[in-house]
């Protein structure tokens, strides 16, 4: 296996003292995992942040082996992690993506929507500018994985968008995260609480 592609890092877990096992969403290859040697080191730690856009190279001798990953930063989400609301939104969409998509199956619409949602979170002046994109991403993910997800990106004021998110929550919890509710849904509950204060 040899892959080089633009990728969005959606999850990273410490492995040993300095390495990281990371999961990346690519447009053409879907969700792929890779071993990042030195991922917790001073040079690579700023790159191994969920939401970062990366240039990814994966290499493995066989399909059963976890590939080694080499990464280069394209765009960092680090500056937004100091802000509670954008940080919660980035954590949620990345955790949701990593927990629900099957490995190595391309979902080009999901990749494109995630990239656009992350861009909106980081560049809109406030949550009112990106909350609709985030809710639309949840709906698209449900639809792409075969669980309905009727409708498109919600519009209206923040209170209306939060109401749509509340409607979709049961489907996400029941269909997408049935075996991972506790840890992944806690990220959504935190985001929902922050958005609720604004609405």
TrEMBL record:
Name any Gene Ontology BP term: DNA repair
**Domain DNA replication/recombination mediator RecO N-terminal intervals:** 1-76
Record's SUPFAM superfamilies?
Nucleic acid-binding proteins (SSF50249)
Q: Report the InterPro entries cross-referenced here.
A: DNA_rep/recomb_RecO_N, NA-bd_OB-fold, RecO
| UniProt name for this protein | DNA recombination protein RecO
Q: Which organism is it from?
A: Aurantiacibacter spongiae
């Amino acid at each position: 296996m040899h892959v080089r592609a633009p990728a969005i890092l959606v999850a990273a877990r410490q492995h040993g003292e300095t390495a990281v096992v990371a999961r990346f969403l690519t447009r053409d290859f879907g969700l792929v995992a890779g071993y990042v040697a030195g991922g917790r080191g001073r040079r690579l730690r700023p790159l191994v942040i969920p939401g970062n856009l990366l240039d990814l190279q994966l290499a493995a001798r066989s399909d059963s082996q976890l590939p080694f990953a080499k990464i280069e930063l394209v765009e960092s989400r680090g500056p937004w992690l100091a802000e509670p609301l954008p940080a919660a939104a980035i954590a949620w969409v990345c955790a949701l993506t990593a927990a629900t998509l099957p490995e190595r199956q391309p979902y080009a619409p999901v990749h494109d929507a995630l990239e656009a949602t992350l861009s909106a979170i980081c560049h809109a002046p406030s949550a009112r500018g990106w909350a609709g994109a985030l809710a639309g991403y949840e709906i698209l993910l449900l639809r792409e994985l075969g669980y309905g997800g009727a409708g498109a990106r919600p519009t209206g004021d923040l209170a209306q968008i939060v109401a749509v998110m509340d409607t979709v929550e049961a489907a996400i919890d029941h269909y997408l995260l049935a075996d991972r509710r506790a840890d992944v849904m806690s990220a959504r509950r935190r985001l929902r609480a922050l958005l609720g204060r604004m609405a």
